[in-house]
Amino acid sequence: MLKLENPEVFRAVLESLQTGVYIVDEDRRIVFWNDGAERISGFLRQDVVGRLCRDNILVHCDENHAVLCGDACPLTDTMRDGKPRSVEIYLRHKAGYRVPVKVWAVPVRDEEGRIIGAAESFEMRTVAATGAHRPNLVAGEIRADETVGLADRDMLVARINERLTAFVERLVPFSILRIQMRHWDQWKARRGHLAAKAMLFGVGQTLTNTLRPVDMVGPWNEGGFLVVIAYCGADVLEHVSELLKKIVKCAEIEWWGDRLSVVALLGGASVEPGDDMESILERAEQSLEQNIRKDGDCALSAQEAK
Questions:
Q1: How high is the pLDDT of residue 144?
Q2: pLDDT category, 139, cuts 50, 70, 90?
Q3: Would you place residue 73 in the very low, low, confident or very high pLDDT band (cuts 50, 70, 90)?
Q4: Poorest-confidence range of 50-64, 183-197, 218-232?
Q5: Orientation of helix 193-210 relative to helix 184-191, angle to 10°
Q6: Cα–Cα distance measured from residue 58 to residue 64, given in angstroms and rounded to the nearest whole number
Q7: What does the DSSP 8-state code read for residue 301?
Q8: CATH architecture for the domain at 153-305
Q9: Which of 29, 131, 220, 270 has CB 3.0 to 4.6 Å from 226, enough for a Cys bridge?
C-alpha cells in the first residue's frame, strides 16, 4: 500500500481541513468532528462527538428563525433519499451568536451501497454580498468597544462622515439603522450585568456576521446598536431591516440552564440631498421611536423574560 493510501493519512487530512466537516451514523450520532468545525462553531470535539446532532448543538435555522432540526434537517433528508443537497443557513456558535454558513450534505454508504450515515461540510458565507467574509474589525484599524468587540461610537461617526462625503461627491447611497433591544432595562435588571454583556456580545457578533465587509456596526447606547450600510438606498433598506430583525431573534446564549434571546426594534434612514450627520441620525432615531411606539408598552414576553 502506498503511504498516501493509508486510511490514517486521509483521516489526518480531513481532521486538519479548515472547512467544517462532521459525520453522523444512522442514528445521527456525531462520530467525527474536524478542526474546521471547531473553528467555525466554537464547539470542540469533546463537546460534540458521541452526541446526537438533534441535541440542540448547532441549532440550524433560516433567516425566518425557522429551526431546521428533526425532519427539516438537511442530513435527515439526505439519509432518507440518498441525494446530496446544499442549503444556506445560520448555525449557533457556542458563544450564542449566529454564523451564516453554506452547508453541503452527502450520504455515507457501505460497500454494498447501503446508507449508513451522512457527512456535512460547511463554510462561512456573507449574506448581503459576494466575496470572502472578514471580521468587522481589522487589527490596528480601529478601536474596539470593550463590551462587544465592535466599532466604537467615534469610528461609527467617522464612517458616516465618509459616506456623506461620498454621497455629496459621487451620489453613492448609504443608509443607517438604529437597533434597540426591546425591554432592555427590564431584561438586564432580571438577568444581571454579566448576562446582559454576553447577550450584547452575541447580538453584536450575529450582526457582524450577517452584514457585509463594507458595512459597519457598533454599540450606540445602552442595549442598542447603530449600523452603517454602504451602497444601500431607501428601496432596499426595509428588506435589510427585516432580515436583521429576524436574525437577531436567532441569537441565543445559554445562561445557568436557560436559553436566552432578545427581540430587536429597528428604525432607519437613507441619505438624502442636503443631509448632514445630525439630520440623518435624527431621522433614524425618529423612525426607531415610531416603531417603539407601535410596539407599545406590552409586558415582557415569556421568551424575553427567560
A1: 37
A2: very low
A3: confident
A4: 50-64
A5: 130
A6: 16
A7: P
A8: 2-Layer Sandwich (3.30)
A9: 220
